[in-house]
């Protein structure tokens, strides 16, 4: 997709998300609607969802797409690594990421953004694609803005 169009898509997505989350602070309701909006708005994605911190593990949260792995150890896979590092990870080819956890063999690239709220790691937002190198710097900015908007609307932890 042409870069300007892609930026405009994320701008529009962010406005829709702000409207969708307005006046609602429930974690589950907002996480479920965020996953649904992003899944249906972004082209070429096959899974969008949350993994939430539960002790030393991440546990599957609200998502859209095929059923997925229920638990991921902190530090394992792309999700567990992004959680421990507290930085976004973009993986152009999941087969090149040591320890990648293949919930869906169709997934070929992914982006994982950590959710840090008031200094506390709540979990991660994971977006997967069946296309190689689906996510670039514009996607990273866009998905990070979506995660920030989601966190802005929280008044309670999961
Ligand atoms: N691929 C992820 C696991 C989650 S699923 O893709 C939905 C990972 O390596 O952490």
> What's the helix-strand series?
HHEEEHEEEH
What's the N-to-C terminus distance?
35 Å
Please state the average pLDDT score: 95
Bound molecules: methionine sulfoxide
**How would you classify the helix and strand content by structural class?**
alpha+beta
SSE diagram, text form:
Elements: H1 3-21, H2 27-41, E1 47-54, E2 57-65, E3 71-73, H3 77-85, E4 89-91, E5 109-117, E6 120-129, H4 137-152
Antiparallel strand pairs: 1-2, 1-6, 2-3, 4-5, 5-6
The protein binds methionine sulfoxide.
What does this 3D model show about the protein?
The protein is built from 4 helices and 6 strands; from the N terminus they run ααβββαβββα. The N and C termini lie far apart (35 Å). A hairpin with a 5-residue loop joins β2 and β3. The mean pLDDT is 95. 37% of the residues lie in helices and 27% in strands. α1 runs antiparallel to α2 and α1 runs parallel beside α4. Strands 3-2-1-6-5-4 form a 6-stranded antiparallel beta sheet, sandwiched between helices. The chain has 158 residues and is an alpha+beta fold. Bound molecules: methionine sulfoxide. Methionine sulfoxide binds next to α3 and β6. The site of methionine sulfoxide has 14 residues, from α3 and β6.
Q: Brief overview, please?
A:
By secondary structure, this protein is of the alpha+beta class. Helix content is 37%, strand content 27%. Bound molecules: methionine sulfoxide.
Kindly list the characteristics that best describe this protein.
158 residues; alpha+beta; six-stranded antiparallel β-sheet; binds methionine sulfoxide
């Amino acid at each position: 997709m042409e870069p300007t169009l892609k930026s405009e898509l994320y701008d529009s997505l962010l406005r829709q998300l702000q409207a969708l989350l307005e006046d609602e602070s429930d974690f589950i309701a907002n996480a479920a609607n965020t996953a649904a909006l992003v899944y249906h708005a972004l082209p070429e994605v096959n899974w969008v969802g949350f993994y939430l911190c539960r002790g030393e593990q991440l546990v599957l949260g609200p998502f859209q797409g095929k059923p997925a792995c229920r638990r991921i150890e902190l530090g394992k896979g792309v999700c567990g690594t992004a959680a421990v590092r507290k930085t976004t990870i973009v993986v152009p080819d999941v087969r090149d990421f040591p320890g990648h956890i293949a919930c869906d063999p169709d997934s070929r690239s992914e982006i994982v953004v950590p959710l840090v709220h008031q200094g506390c790691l709540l979990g991660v937002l994971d977006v997967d694609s069946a296309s190689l190198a689906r996510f670039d710097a514009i996607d990273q900015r866009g998905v990070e803005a979506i995660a920030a908007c989601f966190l802005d609307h929280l008044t309670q932890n999961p």
